[in-house]
Amino acid sequence: MARIELNEIAHSYMAKPKGESDYALKRIHNVWDDGSAFALLGPSGCGKTTLLNIISGLITPSKGRVLYDGKDVTELPPEKRNIAQVFQFPVLYDTMSVFNNLAFPLRNRGIHETQVKKRVLEVAEALDLTPFLNMRAAGLAADAKQKISLGRGLVRSNVAAILFDEPLTVIDPQMKWDLRRKLKEIHEQLMQTFIYVTHDQVEALTFADQVGVMFEGEIVQIGSPQDLFEKPEHRFVGYFIGSPGMNFLECTLEGNVARVDGAGIVLDEQIAAKGHRARGKLELGIRPIYLEIHAESANGMVPADVRAVEDLGSYKIVTLTLAGKTLKANLPEDQPVPEGQVWLGFPPQWTKLFADGWLIK
Amino acid sequence: MEKWPNNKAWFLVIPVFVIVAFSAFIPLMTVINYSLQDILAPGQSVFVGTEWYKEILSDYRLHEALWRQFLFSGLVLLIEMPLGILIALAMPKRGWGVPASLVTIALPLLIPWNTIGTIWIIFTRPDIGLFGFGMNNLLGIPFDHTASSLDAWITVMLMEVWHWTPLVALLAYAGLRAIPEAYYQAARIDGASAWSTFFYIQLPKMRGVLTIAFLLRFMDSFLIYAEPFVLTGGGPGNSTTFLSIYLVKIALLQFDLGPGAAFSLIYFVIVLSFSFIFYQALLRVGKGETV
């Protein structure tokens, strides 16, 4: 168990990277506390796996240092780092039984056979693998195979951290839910550092206390699921988290009023003042759940047209157009949706202003 | 079920019937036919039943040739399989070295078989051959494949290994390249040694291609003809007379078509049954329950 520190990490897969675009990881500077459950969330190709492989030592970063409990391990290979990693697709030693698969990482480190047996039985019990222990790993179903991979990650009790690289991709939805809960339980028991990479926001937000959102080789925000939802620091976080994602409208500022093609939306005065000083493209952002829809006009409201209503059972998604731009709003199931022209309310505390993609706060 | 009224679709199968008939069935039936008759002159033959089979099966020269053949194929497999795997493991994985080594290794496979025999005759000649001259004159070890049985065997084995190990190496290399990177990564995380990685990942993952390599090498080496025929002609004495060389002696040089046909069929049955046994055994390796 250890505190994992990434010091100014950057990585390029090219031998001689020229510009910033040649880097798969641009600049990662971050500390993960001992015993925390951490998730890294981001779309495919954002550098999540590269970052994980740098932590485990499968890749040596082009720049920067990796520290475990203050000790520099940047140049050490994974077998010398005392770290466990579970991969996206099940990796099995086909010719071995399930028991031997789970025992493999322990035996390679010369651990005494009685201790090996104890640990393997514990892990098998936790993952419901006990009935399969004497069977060959090769003949099992995909989810059992992935559980064996997970088990090999969990079996060593003294690792600095366990890294999970989208481990539930091959598992079907119901089993996914069970396994995720199982992993969370195991984390609460062991209090080991878990770093969990995924592109599935539900997985990340339910698994981890702290979620880092990655975008084009950078961690754009780290926070609790609530922070990510309510205070997205970057337009990408707003767009990627939540379903549907945040609404964005390009705007100009006049005093504390944001102008969107003629329509005026009142902003928080301090934010508006900072917005005047900010450089770059200005955008308004509001989560669909905070957008108010009224049939009658009132002070500060903006006219819009209802285009479509999708009823999802527990809530409705309303598609609107405002000055030629499309917006989405979430409405509770019981609230009626007016047809044709409606009036939109933008509550100032939930209406965010972004300059060049970054939140003004 | 009602019978389909229009049976014209059967015509579409005719090409297959014709091809199979000419490529396999008719030649095989001809051989079976010959093997049951004593052909005295063209158009003049007597049905002799299993006589030729009895004669051939009790022919001590055939027994010798058969054991020689088993020894040869056994040695071929014992040397070429591990050597091919070792070469594949040592080959580069990326960069310009990949095409360079692939082409270099594949070269012996592109040379006509008769030419290979000729190359090795010259290569091992004591007077002008690089190998023969080196052995006799530089190292002082007398070496002449035309005079000594052992030297003839060594030469035939060297030639065979040089000629066919590349096939095993190429197949093994293809198998190695097909292993996903994640397996190697997992092995590093699990702290596996190079030996464990080979034994638990690479070897099991290569099982399919190695089965094919094993069967191909067994069948081809069991049927070997052109190269030793050119190189030693089966000598000195009968020391390198393998089954096919002996068969040609009977069937074409002595023109004993009946015994030759019986021999061919026995030969065919041996190759077929051993290939079948090996295939079944290799399928089972790594498939049964482990303890």
Quick summary:
The complex is a heterodimer of chains A (about 350) and B (about 290). Chain A has about 350 residues and is α+β, with helices and mostly antiparallel strands.
Provide the fold topology.
The complex is a heterodimer of chains A (361) and B (291).
Chain A: E1 4-11, E2 25-32, E3 37-41, H1 48-56, E4 63-68, E5 71-72, E6 84-86, H2 98-107, H3 113-126, H4 142-154, E7 162-165, H5 173-190, E8 194-198, H6 201-207, E9 210-215, E10 218-223, H7 225-230, H8 235-240, E11 247-250, E12 252-254, E13 257-260, E14 263-266, H9 269-277, E15 282-286, E16 292-294, E17 302-311, E18 315-322, E19 325-332, E20 341-345, E21 352-355, E22 358-359
Parallel strand pairs in A: 3-8, 3-9, 6-7, 7-8
Antiparallel strand pairs in A: 1-2, 1-4, 4-5, 9-10, 11-15, 12-13, 13-14, 15-21, 16-20, 17-18, 17-20, 18-19, 21-22
Helix pairs in contact in A: 2-3, 2-4
Chain B: H1 14-35, E1 37-41, E2 44-47, H2 51-57, H3 60-90, H4 97-106, H5 113-123, H6 130-138, H7 149-177, H8 181-189, H9 194-205, H10 207-222, H11 226-231, H12 243-253, H13 257-284
Antiparallel strand pairs in B: 1-2
Explain what this protein looks like in three dimensions.
The complex is a heterodimer of chains A (361) and B (291). Chain A is α+β, with helices and mostly antiparallel strands and 361 residues long. Chain A contains nine helices and 22 strands. Chain A has helices at 48-56, 98-107, 113-126, 142-154, 173-190, 201-207, 225-230, 235-240, 269-277; strands spanning 4-11, 25-32, 37-41, 63-68, 71-72, 84-86, 162-165, 194-198, 210-215, 218-223, 247-250, 252-254, 257-260, 263-266, 282-286, 292-294, 302-311, 315-322, 325-332, 341-345, 352-355, 358-359. Chain A has a six-stranded mixed sheet, with helices on both faces. A five-stranded antiparallel sheet of chain A has the order 16-20-17-18-19, with no helix packed on it. In chain A, β21 and β22 (358-359) form a beta hairpin. In chain A, α2 crosses α3 (113-126) and α2 packs parallel to α4 (142-154). With 291 residues, chain B is mainly α. A two-stranded antiparallel sheet of chain B has the order 1-2. In chain B, β1 (37-41) and β2 form a beta hairpin. In chain B, α1 packs across α13 (257-284). The chains are: A alpha+beta (361), B mainly alpha (291). The A-B interface holds A 53, 56, 58, 77-79, 83-85, 87-89, 91, 93-97, 100, 104-105, 108-109, 134-136, 138, 149, 152 and B 180, 182-183, 185-186, 188-193, 196, 200-201, 204-205, 286, 289-291.
